[in-house]
Design brief:
By secondary structure, this protein is an all-alpha fold. The protein has four helices and no strands. The protein is globular, with a radius of gyration of 17 Å. The N and C termini lie far apart (about 45 Å).
Length: about 110
């Protein structure tokens, strides 16, 4: 895995303000080795990401597009998480929602 030179062919779209930082592989490995706090946070992130990816795959395989849409909207609203609910959900087009649930915009239109 450490020698993998895979080309990333997908894109990401931020739904809120964010900053992206590009780091070399060697620098990331150095930080993971030298900073235990960062290493722990990074491992938590990777585990949660793996679990989320697995849940998304199961969702895609076994649920209707309506259920996938409902799940996506609940995830965007942080439903079921402790603390104050987020009062604003960023504007998302029907095309973006359709991509998020794995369908075309026409099938993702439930209005």
């Amino acid at each position: 895995m450490a020698e993998c030179k895979a080309l990333r062919t997908s894109t990401a779209t931020a739904v809120s303000a964010c900053k992206a930082l590009r780091m070399t592989r060697e620098h990331i490995l150095s930080v993971l080795h030298d900073e235990p706090a960062f290493s722990g946070l990074f491992m938590q992130f990777m585990l949660r990401r793996g679990i989320r990816t697995q849940a998304d795959l199961v969702d895609q395989l076994f649920n209707s597009s309506e259920r996938r849409l409902a799940r996506t909207l609940l995830l965007m609203a942080d439903f079921g998480k402790p603390g104050e609910p987020e009062p604003l959900i960023p504007y998302v087009t029907q095309e973006t929602l359709a991509e998020m649930i794995g369908t075309n915009p026409l099938a993702g239109s439930f209005s």
